[in-house]
Description:
Radius of gyration: 18 Å
Number of domains: 2
Order of helices and strands: HEHEHEHEHEHEHEHE
Shape: globular
Strand order of the largest sheet: 3-2-1-4-5-6
CATH topology of the largest domain: Rossmann fold
Low-confidence stretches: none
Oligomer: single chain
CATH superfamily of the largest domain: NAD(P)-binding Rossmann-like Domain
Amino acid sequence: SDVIQADAETFRPVPDIEGLPLSVHLHILGMTGLTAYVGLTAIAGMKEGDTVFVSGAAGAVGTAVGQIAKQLGASRVIGSAGSAEKVALLTQKYGYDEAFNYKEVNVREQLPVFAPDGVDVYFDNVGGDHLEAALDAMNDGGRIALCGAISGYNSTDRTQGPDNMANIITRGLKLEGFTLANYLHHAPAFREKMTKWFAEGKIAYDETVVDGIENTVDAFLDMMRGANTGKMLVRI
């Protein structure tokens, strides 16, 4: 086995939680869940009663965002995903009020149908056409947390920008990108809240586990193609 030597402050104990595998500390109770929490709270300043839209909603971060938003008092949480199966999971398991398949109809056309009163907070994992659609649907004073832009990760061409960025000005929108490294000080508050929600049976999760370190590259590519539900993990 591999051994890591470092100062004690580098590590923190991982508690056993009855009925849950230790792997949850690698996603919903770890960095993945913390990313969702930070994006909603520290970046987007989500308030009780907000309407929240989440792209890439069936991924590990997205499934956490929807559930945390509901626990923080969102009035309506809407998610987009890439298959009928994932759309069903969002509403049946992860607490989303509405969900749609962005591969069936253009997201720019679908979002206003599911958010007739507009969007207050957009948690962006996708970028591209989803960001453009959100800019159309945002209410005055809306906030956008830019966490990812997976729609453009494999593009070999220059990514086209949204054609409606003037809405940022006219509606007084705030867009802020973030990476988690600058927000780790929020971890204690997140763990306290999430552990309580778990104990109350309010949090669901999925993980896709691939066996064998030799399959790591295939697992990563499958994740990029959307083949996973929840966190993609490799068991070694």
